[in-house]
Design a protein that fits this description.
886 residues; alpha+beta; seven-stranded mixed β-sheet
């Protein structure tokens, strides 16, 4: 590393060095450095009986050999294909039995591997990671199989115009340095990569003295540290190669023009930005929030009609980063006025400075975010990993003092140095049409695949013992439920893990069933008006009031609030004011109507929309209300009176639910909500907002061209004759985990990715509604791989009908679903969203526990019968977006 660290960073490094001699226990945080150099931080978080383990290797695409930009990424993939003492099939089974939340990511400087699992499984997670640190099975035959999957990932990302721009951006801003390429890699370099090259990279960099292990969750730190020492303590340290040297050249101005399949155009102005180790990093964090504030001029472009949207985003790597202003313009619109306005705003920031009031608000919000990080076990682990592995800090709170010390003068000086037009990277992504959808009889030839189930996987004793018995996990939440006199449902789940409160709410509406003929788009226009404030506070005053209490809020049919507990009552008052008394100003209506009409005009021409509407048309009757959609004409025909009438008709307390999670007493929360929402009244009978039942569909095929894509996106979908209240859903969900759950351990992943390399990922799922439901399998693949992948999907579905699933598959699927109960209670957001769904669907609030009991009792014969009776493999509608399948 060549950049000079700040005094703060140096102090942090010194503190970490002095902690190496012995564990340092500060209550809920235990730090230690093993004799082999492995740094360990264990953070107790009792939100749920869940733990997240993250092993951070301090290597990534920065250290790859010349000409092989994806080496670190390729090794990340191969870490899932087995180690001495743990085959790839055993690894997949272990991860699946733990609940299936097991993954990794590769960045420029760090490669991370993580488990999210019940706390009782921590020892299994640590044993697994220690085996992978010791060594891998890196045979060329295994790499050949995995190469097919990683090349599909490359095709997926290279099908994104935004990713193409990002690749060019890095090459321009960081030419001649390791940051000049993304960590993704290229198909050409992967074709030249060998197993021996990957083994060498592992042996060089995957050492305990080049890793930081973070454990966060409901664990005893001392016990957890003892387990770490057992598994990792005897792995020898290694001499590490020299790190790359960063010498950044002057980045000269450049403009890139790219087509996009999006319904709108994008303008980007990008500049080199301070890195995580830069003395100006804290000032950059504050400037990022200032420029991205809803009170700032970039966001104001979208509120005044100068653009569809405006904003700013700063992203930092250790040695440098990218600061990007963003402007969105309608399809067919002229990007130049948007670009001119963005340049003017940034020029003003550089020459005149920014509003000191926004600097203070940004500092308060940045500091408040540190407390909100405690509201997720996984998020807390991520925060500690980011601080230690990326920022070189001592803890997530270490940046607090640096943020507090930031002055408006420091922010202005950074803006002046950064926003020099001579060094700006400009990109304009312009929407282009790809062609109309084409119906067909099918894709590909008469290729067939024989079913050849693999032998059952025998787990090693240390893992088998952990998964011997399946039980219904104990739920740690006990929400208190109220129904207010006006019909509003209130659910409160007290949590004391942080000094914050999070609110999740919704109003059940359905534009397709509640809007008048030729008023399609009225709900979209209404949603666009909520940010313009209330009848007593204009949009800037409302945002200023939220900033004053470090709160985040969104309003509409789906609404939310995140606020420090001390300001909960004030936050709820502001939220209620926005929900119940939206300003709906005439001048704003004209702006939003024009923006929505422009956005819709572009959207209806996008391949994504054409795929969606084509797929729905193949599944649903021709007159079904779900086929309604906004058009430019329907939006332009609206007036403010129609929007207000729709608001009055659909915003009813007896259709609303509010879920509150956090540091609040339920009785106090009820009192505050009654004060804020109690005067809200409903008139007339409750509306029916659920779609009616429909007959099952016939098979079909649809191809939607997408000229910007090199990979096809495939959706295979059908109507299923069950509802969300049918008990058979439990057997279907269990079978769905056999097919698509547990990553590599699932049948579809095994057949489509592991054995054949046809796809990068494949997802499956049921969408169960009150009267109608669908089943879908989706994947991405090269055009010549669509047909064989689709045939494998059909084959595996038929196998579910023809043969009972094995005892091993059944137990694994049950384990995934049972362990998901505590995992779904390991963050405020998952708790709140889960309770909100249960309430909206009229289910008991302990629905997860009820479902777990069903899953535990199901048999293989019941799963087979459910798939025989309700799944129709030969009736799937296959819709493909991208190049024509071959």
């Amino acid at each position: 590393m060549t950049k000079q660290k700040t005094l703060l960073a140096a102090a942090m490094a010194l503190a970490m060095a002095t902690s190496a001699a012995a564990p340092q226990d500060t209550g809920d945080v235990l730090r230690a450095t093993l004799d082999n150099g492995l740094r360990v931080v264990i953070v107790r978080d009792t939100l749920a009986p869940v733990v997240t383990s993250e092993i951070n290797y301090l290597t990534g695409s920065d250290e790859v050999p010349d000409g092989f930009p994806g080496t670190a990424h390729a090794l990340e993939h191969m870490m899932f294909r087995g180690s001495p003492g743990l085959s790839k099939d055993q690894l997949a089974a272990v991860a699946a039995n733990m609940g299936g939340s097991f993954n990794a990511d590769t960045t420029q400087s760090v490669t991370q591997y993580y488990f999210v699992a019940p706390s009782s499984d921590l020892d299994v997670a640590l044993h697994t990671e220690a085996l992978r640190m010791r060594g891998l099975d890196l045979a060329d035959a295994e790499w050949a199989k995995e190469r097919g999957a990683i090349e599909q990932e490359v095709s997926r990302d290279m099908s994104s115009p935004n990713f193409k721009f990002y690749s060019q951006l890095l090459a321009q801003l960081f030419d001649g340095s390791p940051y000049a390429h993304t960590p993704l890699g290229t198909r050409e370099s992967f074709d030249k990569t060998t197993g021996a090259m990957l083994r060498k990279f592992h042996d060089q960099w995957y050492a305990p003295n080049n890793a930081i292990l973070v454990i966060a969750g409901d664990v005893d730190p001392a016990v957890a540290l003892a387990e770490v020492k057992i598994h990792f303590g005897d792995i020898p340290r290694r001499a590490l190669p020299a790190r790359p040297v960063f010498h950044f050249k002057v980045a000269n101005a450049k403009t890139v023009l790219l087509p996009t399949d999006s319904g709108f155009g994008s303008v980007y102005l990008a500049y080199r930005w301070p890195g995580l180790h830069d003395p100006d990093y804290a000032a950059a964090m504050v400037l990022d929030k200032v420029l991205g504030s809803q009170r700032a001029a970039l966001f104001g472009m979208g509120m005044t009609g100068k653009a569809l949207y405006g904003g700013f985003s700063g992203s930092s790597m250790p040695e440098a980063g990218v600061g990007t202003a963003i402007g969105i313009f309608p399809r067919g619109g002229d990007p130049q006025p948007v670009l001119k306005e963005m340049r003017s705003i940034l020029a003003d920031a550089a020459s005149k400075g920014v509003d000191p009031a926004l600097v203070e608000a940004a500092k308060r919000n940045a500091i408040a975010e540190l407390e909100f990080k405690k509201n997720s076990v996984e998020g807390l682990a991520n925060a500690w990993s980011d601080a230690l592995a990326f920022e070189g800090a001592d803890s997530p709170d270490a940046i607090r003092q640096a943020i507090e010390a930031v002055t408006p003068e420091a922010v202005n000086a950074l803006a002046k140095r950064t926003f020099d037009p001579a060094h700006a990277m400009t990109a304009i992504l312009t929407p282009e049409s790809s062609g109309k959808p084409i119906e067909g009889k099918g894709f590909g030839g008469a290729e067939s695949f024989a079913s050849s189930p693999d032998k059952p996987v025998t787990l090693p004793d240390w893992a088998a013992q952990a998964f011997t018995k399946l039980d219904v996990p104990h739920s740690t939440i006990s929400p208190v439920s109220y129904t207010l006199p006006n019909g509003l449902r209130l659910i409160v789940q007290p949590e004391t893990i942080s000094d914050t409160v999070e609110v999740y709410g919704s109003i059940r509406t359905n534009q397709d069933l509640q809007s008048a003929k030729d008023e399609e788009g009225v709900a979209d226009v209404l949603d666009g008006l909520f940010p313009f404030g209330t009848s007593s506070l204009d949009r800037l005053q409302l945002q200023q009031a939220l900033d004053a209490i470090s709160a985040r809020q969104s309003a509409g049919t789906s609404f939310s609030l995140s606020v420090p507990a001390a300001h909960f009552a004030e936050g709820m008052k502001l939220l209620a004011d926005n929900e119940l008394h939206p300003a709906l100003p005439p001048e704003a209506f004209g702006v939003v109507q024009q923006q929505i009409a422009g956005a819709v005009a572009g959207q209806v021409q996008t391949p994504e929309f054409l795929l969606m509407i084509g797929l729905d048309a193949a599944l649903l009757p021709a007159t079904d209300p779900e086929l309604r959609h906004a058009t430019p004409e329907s939006v332009k025909a609206l007036d403010l009176g129609k929007v207000k009438a729709y608001y009055a008709k659909t915003f009813r307390p007896d259709m609303a639910t509010i879920v509150i999670v956090g540091k609040v007493d339920p009785a106090q929360a009820k009192q505050i909500v009654e004060q804020a929402f109690g005067d809200w009244k409903a008139e007339g009978a409750q509306p029916d907002v659920d779609y009616a039942a429909v007959p099952v569909n016939k098979a079909g095929h649809l191809h939607v061209p997408d000229s910007s894509a090199v990979q096809d996106s495939v959706q295979m979908k059908e109507i299923v004759d069950i509802t969300r209240d049918d008990d058979v859903r439990f057997a279907l969900n269990l079978g769905n985990e056999v097919l698509g759950g547990g990553f590599y351990a699932s049948r579809l992943y095994h057949d489509l990715r592991d054995k054949s390399g046809l796809v990068y990922n494949v997802s499956t799922g049921f969408d169960l509604d009150k009267h109608r439901s669908t089943y879908e399998v989706s994947f991405g693949s090269d055009p010549d791989k669509v047909a064989p992948a689709a045939k494998l999907v059909v084959r595996d579905l038929k196998q579910m009908q023809d043969e009972p699933v094995s005892a091993e598959d059944l137990k694994r699927a049950k384990g995934i679903l049972l362990r998901q109960l505590p995992l779904n209670e390991a963050s405020f957001s998952s708790i709140g969203e889960q309770l909100l769904i249960f309430a909206e669907q009229g289910r008991p609030l302990d629905e997860s526990t009820i479902a777990a009991r069903h899953y535990l009792e199901l048999t293989a014969a019941q799963v087979q019968q459910a798939y025989r009776q309700h799944i129709r493999p030969d009736a799937l509608v296959t819709a493909v977006k991208g190049p024509a399948p071959k």
